[in-house]
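Chapter summary example.
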Amino acid sequence: MSLKIIASTCTGCSACEPECPNVAIREKGGIFVIDPKKCTECEGHYDEPQCIAVCPVDGCIVKA
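The structure predicted for these 64 residues follows.
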């Protein structure tokens, strides 16, 4: 499973990008996107997805 960022709620703050252990998050047109091929929801690294933990916008990052 992977996560996705809801473009309409992403503020472009970039808090999520450096937290991703799989380098699955990148900036695209002022917002951030998650590469579903790289996203593992942080399994094997953390107990919870780190992008969700640091995102200041509730509900911005959801299961794809």
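To summarize the output: The chain is about 10% helix and 20% strand.
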